[in-house]
Specification:
mainly beta
């Protein structure tokens, strides 16, 4: 992201499929591995299609999801509270409408039209993202004996020489994916993922809804206020405490090293990786595949 540019956000794609997001996988798999051979538990692959709608991204001094965490038994706990008081936006979509991007396409830089903002000087330990809770996905997996392809419902086919098809997945429940638990608890309302390979750090997210009205947006570096009819903030978000009413996900990533913005910093590039983690493969109990679902992403940051 070029902080000195007000019209374009540069999302940097690395080698292979890079840039991603359905923040966290259903079933709350906190440390799922990349798939290899037969499928005995949830595992990850790289999708061939991964479309998200991005509303806002930014950096935070403190954790806006401090009440969402993995306990000592690796179970997710959440109070569904979102505190954006120490966060500064680095990208806002035009008119609060979001910007769609396929994160599994090509390499190089992909420009997202919107407002790029320079955050204040400081050490930022957290990054956040606000996106739709609907994701466009496609992919396939070969166990070595059988090839499984996604079909339009998120189910699978293994018909000879199958060809994968895309589908839109609504994440309404972190435990059940597209369906709701009638009495949602922590495991349904939030998820967390710890990455120990590739881009390392901790990602977590909660189901959310926008709160309040859109308003004018102030650039903290210049104090310029942008016209309401051109750029709007997407408002603060509130965590959802029921299932089926959320329209967004609020995600937070804590990298192993903080992002440091200095007076001399001219820009920031953000690279989201979905390699070996953007799509979840679900086991059928006999080494095969029962279905596919969205998987997590992890961002890295480079200042210049």
């Amino acid at each position: 992201m070029k902080l000195i540019t007000k019209e374009n956000l540069k999302v940097v794609l690395g080698l292979g499929f890079s840039v991603g997001a359905c923040l966290l996988a259903p079933n709350n798999a906190a440390n799922a591995e990349a798939c290899s051979g037969s499928v005995t538990a949830n595992c990850y692959i790289t999708p061939t299609r991964y479309v998200i709608n991005v509303y806002e991204m930014g950096l935070c001094w403190e954790d806006p999801l401090n009440g969402t965490y993995l306990d000592g038994d690796d179970n997710i706990r959440t109070d569904s509270l979102i505190d954006e008081s120490t966060c500064q936006a680095t990208f806002v979509s035009p008119n609060g409408g979001g910007v769609k991007v396929n994160l599994a396409v090509g390499s190089g830089e992909h420009a997202l039209t919107g407002l790029a903002l320079r955050p204040s000087v400081g050490r930022y330990s957290y990054a956040y993202i606000k996106i739709d809770n609907t994701f466009g996905i496609a992919g396939s997996y070969d166990t070595g004996s059988t090839k499984y392809c996604s079909i339009g419902t998120g189910d699978v086919t293994s018909a000879g020489g199958c060809t994968e098809s895309a589908w839109d997945e609504d994440l309404l429940d972190f435990s059940n994916g597209r369906t709701c638990n009638s009495t949602p608890g922590d495991i349904e309302l939030a998820g967390s993922e710890v990455f120990t390979t590739g881009i390392t750090g901790t990602m977590k997210a909660v189901l959310a809804k926008p709160s309040g009205t859109y308003g004018k947006y102030e650039d903290p570096s210049t104090k310029d206020v942008f016209r309401k009819d051109k750029y709007n903030s997407v408002g603060t978000y509130v965590g959802d405490t029921s299932c089926g009413s959320s329209t967004r996900l609020f995600g937070v990533f804590k990298p192993d090293q903080p992002v440091v913005i200095k007076e001399s910093t001219e820009g920031l590039h953000v690279n989201f990786s979905i390699t070996d983690r953007g799509m979840t493969v679900l086991p059928d109990g006999s080494g095969g595949v029962s279905g596919f679902s969205s998987g997590p992403f992890s961002p890295s940051f480079k200042v210049f």
